[in-house]
Design a protein that fits this description.
There is one protein chain. This protein has 142 residues and is of the alpha+beta class. The chain has 3 domains: 1-33; 35-109, 2-Layer Sandwich (Defensin A-like); 111-142. Helix content is 46%, strand content 21%. The protein has 4 helices and 7 strands; from the N terminus they run αββααββαβββ. It has helices at residues 3-33, 52-58, 63-74, 94-108; strands at residues 40-43, 46-49, 78-80, 86-88, 119-124, 127-132, 138-141. The protein has a 4-stranded antiparallel β-sheet with strand order 1-2-4-3, with helices on one face. It has a 3-stranded antiparallel β-sheet with strand order 5-6-7, with no helix packed on it. β6 (127-132) and β7 form a beta hairpin. The longest helix has 31 residues, at 3-33. It starts with a helix and ends with a strand. It binds zinc ion (ZN). Residues 111, 113-114, 116, 132, 134-135, 137 line the site of zinc ion.
Length: 142
């Protein structure tokens, strides 16, 4: 094998390893949180996120907060129906939805100091804090 190919192959291997790692991390997080994977279907020009409120309550988060962040990340308007489903005004595939959920968990659920998902969001003087029940860290979040 010449050197050029060896470099390309190790690069591919590296990418695969990163992908595996990401997948593993995601699974660990959702398992610890006891939250289901997002379940969404495209209906016409909209995307119906069927278990939106189920996930929000598993994460112990206000569905409205999760919706504001998800809508911003997806770049689409969203509403929450009375039955707890969320409607996204636009076609979003399951990967986009999963990415948004991982982003939300990383930014608004997981403690950046100790990695615990046992946290809550508290608003004080207009600043939102992620307060960790495991290590006590208070992290301001935007
Ligand atoms: Zn912590």
């Amino acid at each position: 094998m010449n050197i050029k190919w060896a470099v390309v192959l190790s690069y591919i291997e590296l990418l695969n390893r990163i992908k595996d790692q990401t997948r593993k991390d995601t699974n660990v997080v959702t398992q610890r949180l006891n939250a289901p994977q997002p379940d969404a279907v495209i209906v016409g020009n909209r995307t119906v996120w069927k278990n939106f409120s189920v996930i929000a309550s598993a994460l112990r988060r206000d569905p409205r907060h999760m919706m504001i962040i998800a809508a911003k990340e997806l770049g689409a308007a969203m509403t929450i129906e009375n039955d707890g489903r969320a409607v996204i005004y636009g076609k979003k595939d399951s990967t986009s939805i999963k990415n948004v959920m991982n982003y939300y968990i990383k930014m608004y659920v997981t403690c950046p100091v100790c990695g615990s998902p046992d946290t809550k969001l508290i608003k004080e003087k207009k600043i939102l804090f992620l307060v960790c029940e495991a290590c006590g860290a208070r992290t301001p979040v935007v």
